[in-house]
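Hi X.,

You mentioned you wanted examples for the new student's onboarding notes, showing what a folding record looks like when two proteins sit in one file. Here is a clean example. The first protein comes first, with its sequence line followed by its structure tokens.
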Amino acid sequence: MSSDYNNPAFKKLLKRLQEESWQLELIISGFAIFGLITAIGPISEAANIAQSKQQLVLTIVLGIAVVSCAILIFNLLLHVVLRGLWIGTLGLRYVSGDIDYDSLNYSEKFTKYLKKKVGSFDKYVATLENYCSIIFAVSFLLIFYVLALTFTILSIVLVATQIIDNDALPETLRTIVGVVFILFFIFGMVLTFIDFITQGWLKKKKWISKFYFPVYWVFSFITLSFLYRPLVYNFLDNKFGKRLSFVLLPVYLAILVLSSFHYRSSNYFDNVDFSSETTARRINYLDVLNENEHVDEFAISSKVVTTPYLNIFMELTDNVENNVFNYNPDLRPENDKRGLRSNMIVTGDINWSTIRKRQKDYLNTINQIYKVRIDSTYYDSEFILSEIKQKDIGFETFVGINDLEEGKHLLKVIRKRIKDGDTVRHSVCKIPFWYFKD
């Protein structure tokens, strides 16, 4: 098949498929819109959960998926609307043919104006067809652009984390190499963006193109442009495609700006983003969480407590585990197994006695690091591994509060850490609650 594209029969087949592609476009758009609208909710929820659990890799992957779904839904809905209009114009043309300006019996001035501005009805049908076909193709091209931007930013992050912050490398070497790589990526990203918005201006200038080519070659792998490059250049070599690209970019920017608007009911208060002495965030109270809400780091049983004890839950996140490793370096494994992992990978024999011992050491370290304080008094607490109804895994404890006076109180979780050889304590959680004896 690699040589069949020059065959006249193959070109004839392509032409026939092009003429009938609108049917496939509508079928694909319909199924894709239904699937995307169904999937974007669970994906967004999973992205929020991953963000609350501070799972960086999973947050990025799911974030890309959410953005891609939103782009495809908008473009495919626009495509379906325009295709519907196109089908309507075909039906109208079958009934009444082309526009007969003479039968309208307008004045000569209006007739000339309309013939010039409106023109032939067939031209209108052809224009709609072009818009529909290009928007359908651009819908998937934009996903590659999102991936390109993401991989470019990830390249800079990887240099910062794997080279500049890598203690295994000499400080001078890692600083010099890291800064050089970051400057190259930033400079290359700017040049690539300029070339993108100018539709290849850097490739047209002879002396600039020689300088730009190495950057273009490197970024073709970083942005995966070698996968969709034929689609891009086929899109740009068409005048209609170029004009549409200039129209679509402002439209997307306008949608982005418009979606950022919201009504504010106060000059001082907007959203409750965290709990403190003066604010109470919903997701810090277990009894009011619904099935789609999840704990964000810390939560207590209820905003109003009537029992002689207080239930406190601390979510297991990457930061919590990092705090444990920093406080007790002996628990840090040689091979960190956190992150995306496949269940198909067999790790070999498992020494369960060693694992159980390290789990106990882990919990002991947790209870050394985190202490519970209500108002200004410390309370005895012992965190154990637990799972709550929202499928959040973390550490749970109960503290007796019989001695508390009725009214408003403030729970604080105090974290202990070692900094420059000294033990430092600071509050990592503040949750207000009201206590009334039952």
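Then the second protein repeats the pattern, sequence line and then tokens:
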Amino acid sequence: MATDTARTITLDPPGPAPAGMPPPVPGTGVSQRPAPAPRPAPAAPAAPEAAPVATARPATPAAAPSRPSSPSPSPSSTPSPSGGGSDGLDRALRRGVLWGPVAIGAAMLLQMWASAQGGDQAVRPLRLLTVLVEGGGGLSGGSPLLGVAINAVIGIVLGTLFALVAPRLRGPRVVLVAALVFAAGVFAVDLYALSPALSPVLELREASLLLTSRLVFGAVLAIPFLAARHH
């Protein structure tokens, strides 16, 4: 005969939860204690407030004693841009000495060309110049080489005279006009003073040709002085 034995399983109740702990979930024995909340990070200590820095004011400089202003240089003491002064005069004299014979030679070439075109000898103007040294007889038998030498000396003298005035001239136009006026003055002296005084033979009837040749002389003589204005 079988006998059913009833077995009774007794579960011990869980012990009391410690203080501050929530009771366990029934049937699990697991405490319902929540996860601890994160603690906030401690705030950084405030930086100490910087003390205001007092800005030092610059000391007001004492008024300097007034000095008498230096007198401005007078226009006469200021060197002119056109090459005034001793150095400028020396350079101008060298130009006159070098270019005077060149300018008077250009004028002589024009006279020689005009003499040949008129049916006369081309060297006749050179022979006329020998009268200044040999007298009246030089017109027929004067040496043309002597005439060239005399012409060169005349050019040096005239170029030097113009060079004494050229450094004081201002502006290219003034230089050119002054050179032409100077040449016209040379023409007047040649025609009305020098030629009749030396010999009646030198009384030139071709005044227009002489004036043209002297203007050519003045234009050529102005070239080095005009070129110096551009440097």
